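stage 2 :: seqdesign
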């Protein structure tokens, strides 16, 4: 047996989540966010599975976009942070990439000499996230310069919401009001929402939505709703038991002896560790499913292994399947236990974990 850890990627689930996004925002355009290798799910495979239903894809770099062009994706591609260096402009033009412009410097890179063909620009306004984007004072001048430039198409107007996962948040209401005020006098298409905005802020749908995490089936909100319950997990990280042992009351398990048996305990050793992307900070009690039964992590996660409580699963034996996250144990639950977010779990699945793709059938 080879090392038994795998990430199964359920492409029909991703399609179903995209259909849910579209159903929640009827008639709007969807830019599926597949940066960071589609949050660890495989950018080329995810793009191929969505290309007939989505309106475009969003990425973080030229390298990510070129990978998609090389694998035959012809849809609009947007670089969410735009160019990092003016030398990338040539690549962006050749590969027909749309660019975010979030700063005066990026505007200058585009305007300083005529381009051989027009390029789409999404102008990013800072309405309160305070990470990237034009200040309110910069908007009129930079917007006008881009609008009047013959080789620039658009600009579309975009912003990013800092607190969208929290329904009703005052910070989000303020951002929406500021965006409305800054863009009131400018025609053109608008984009404000990531997955959380799409699911919780219908007034922020604009013309183009930018869902990422919801496509992969994790809940983008701080709360559960009827809609978030319809999201289907797209990644199942699973492995097997490679050893089982019995320990007496008072014995400790693993590095640092963090977990001490409160009773006679059956312990299963699973071939999955932090070098696979399982969070090292997961505490005792983090949910795990062994042979279809829910149990808990006990002991510190090591590089290649972790240990689980089998006391209540007396039949479990080496070779039995273990789900780290997926259908039975949601990535959101593991993330909450480990004080992180599903985004970090998905993007942290290591290159050494083989992905296997399921295409057909729901
Ligand atoms: C990553 C990203 C998104 C997608 O966010 P999710 O929370 O995954 O839906 C949308 N917009 C921008 C600008 C992003 O960087």
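stage 2 :: out
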């Amino acid at each position: 047996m080879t090392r038994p850890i795998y990430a199964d990627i359920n492409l029909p689930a991703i399609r179903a989540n995209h259909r849910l996004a579209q159903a929640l925002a009827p008639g709007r355009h969807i830019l599926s966010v597949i940066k960071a290798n589609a949050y660890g799910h495989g950018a080329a495979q995810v793009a191929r599975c969505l290309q007939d239903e989505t309106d475009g894809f969003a990425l973080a770099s030229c390298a990510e976009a070129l990978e998609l062009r090389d694998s035959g994706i012809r849809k609009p591609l947007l670089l969410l942070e735009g160019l990092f260096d003016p030398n990338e402009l040539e690549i962006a033009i050749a590969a027909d990439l749309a660019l975010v412009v979030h700063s005066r410097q990026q505007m200058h890179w585009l305007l300083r000499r005529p381009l051989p063909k027009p390029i789409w620009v999404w102008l990013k306004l800072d309405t309160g996230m305070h990470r990237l984007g034009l200040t309110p004072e910069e908007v009129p001048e930079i917007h006008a310069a881009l609008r009047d430039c013959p080789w620039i198409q658009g600009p579309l107007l975009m912003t990013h919401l800092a607190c969208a996962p929290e329904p009703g948040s005052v910070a989000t209401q303020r951002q929406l009001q500021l965006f409305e005020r800054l863009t009131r006098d400018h025609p053109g298409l608008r984009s404000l929402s990531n997955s959380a905005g799409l699911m919780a802020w219908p007034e922020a749908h604009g013309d183009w939505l930018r869902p990422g995490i919801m496509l992969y089936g994790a809940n983008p909100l701080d709360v559960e709703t009827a809609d978030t319950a319809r999201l289907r997990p797209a990644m199942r990280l699973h492995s097997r038991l490679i050893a089982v042992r019995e320990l007496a009351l008072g014995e400790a398990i693993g590095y640092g002896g963090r977990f001490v048996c409160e009773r006679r305990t059956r312990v299963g050793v699973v071939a999955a560790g932090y070098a696979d992307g399982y969070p090292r900070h997961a505490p005792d009690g983090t949910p795990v499913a062994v042979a279809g039964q829910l149990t808990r992590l006990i002991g510190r996660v090591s590089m290649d292994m972790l240990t689980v409580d089998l006391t209540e699963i007396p039949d479990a034996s080496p070779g039995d399947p273990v789900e780290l996250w997926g259908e039975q144990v949601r990535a959101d639950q593991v993330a909450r236990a480990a004080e992180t977010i599903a985004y970090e779990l998905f993007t942290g699945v290591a290159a050494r974990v083989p992905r296997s793709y399921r295409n057909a059938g729901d």
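stage 3 :: structure notes
- The chain has a mean pLDDT of 97.
- Residues 33, 35, 80, 160, 194-196, 210-213, 220 surround pyridoxal-5'-phosphate (CB under 6 Å).
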